Amino acid sequence: MEIIHLTGIDGARNARGTVVVIDVIRSFTVSAYALAGGARECLLVPTVTQALALHAKIPGSVISAEEEALPVDGIPISNSPTQIKNADLKGRVLVQRSSAGTTVMSAVESDDVYAASLVVATATVRACLSMHPRLLTLLASADHPEDHACAKYMEGLLRGEQPDLDLLLQPLRDSERYARARGGSWPGFPATDLDLCLAQDRFDFAMPATKHADCLRLTAVGAARPKS
Question: Which CATH architecture has domain 2-220?
Fold first, then answer.
């Protein structure tokens, strides 16, 4: 199996084979906690306007959105796993828009796509291996250390290795961005988001994406969904 690493929108346009789109902080961590918390599905769109329109069409749906990593006026839930974990999502649909994950995934042309983050990394690797792909693209949704760390961790697992995730995540922990988030003063970004995002393999399901006319649909596939 050939494994290639790409990043961002440009990478999405060049992704081939089975594609795993990675957004650790925070979009696809939000998706995982939503599905673990009982959401039927997560619907991904690239713009806030599309998110609001889709939310309006689906009775009882919940919307999560941010722009440039900041909350959007009128949308109480930002791109925050803490907020999602505390929301009532059982049997409901989560509509998601984020600056990196949902936007990058919308640019991928492959029909064989997974959303991933550290909380579902091993389950996603198992799902990919079960398909025996000749080519697999690990696509970091942004040029952030945690997305690259997750991609390297997943590549190691795909090759039968046991990567040192703590070592891979050290560049994140050394960054100003991490210190700012840990300080708890970032609007829409509770400090607790970091621990939720970095909870390695918390959930035992993968999140395949299927294309629909106005969105991408994520569901949980694998073991029974744990309580959030």
Answer: Alpha-Beta Complex (3.90)
